[in-house]
Design goal:
Layout lengths: L1 H11 L3 H6 L4 H28 L5 H33 L5 H36 L6
Helix pairs in contact: 3-4
């Protein structure tokens, strides 16, 4: 979301490189992108809430599950719509490519670190959920 926000700000501030490329397709910009952003925020927020509170049922669990479904569908639409432009962008050479790839690499490493750090809590919640429905929680 950070890189997309950066591109959006640069476009609306009138930076030549971004204006020349133009905005994304209208449906992606007005419908899909806001749904992806909102569902990502809700998904992460409810996930953190569930890890902190150890809840295994209730409204927050339902909201977490629903936001995942919405996130998966909207992100799939977004990714499929961007495959063509992405393949062209990957073949092109442009200024700042090394820095951009470095930022992506750092972001991926940070994501893996957060996922690894929260895995014990998520495993504990999964065990609690399994026990509730009569599956072995060991």
């Amino acid at each position: 979301m950070g890189s997309t926000g950066w591109r959006m700000a640069r476009y609306y501030l009138g930076r030549e490189e971004y204006v020349r490329r133009g905005p994304p397709a209208f449906p992606l910009r007005v419908i899909v992108a806001p749904v992806v952003v909102a569902s990502t925020v809700v998904l992460f927020g409810t996930g953190i809430y569930l890890l902190v509170t150890h809840e295994v049922q209730g409204t927050a669990v339902g909201l977490h599950k629903a936001s995942f479904v919405v996130w998966l569908v909207s992100t799939t639409i977004h990714v499929l719509a961007r495959l063509g432009p992405m393949s062209r962008a990957l073949r092109a050479r442009y200024r700042g490519l090394g820095l951009r790839l470095g930022v992506v690499a750092v972001t991926l490493v940070a994501g893996v670190a957060v996922a690894t750090a929260t895995l014990p809590g998520a495993d504990q919640l999964q065990d609690q959920m399994s026990a509730q429905v009569g599956l072995d929680a060991s």
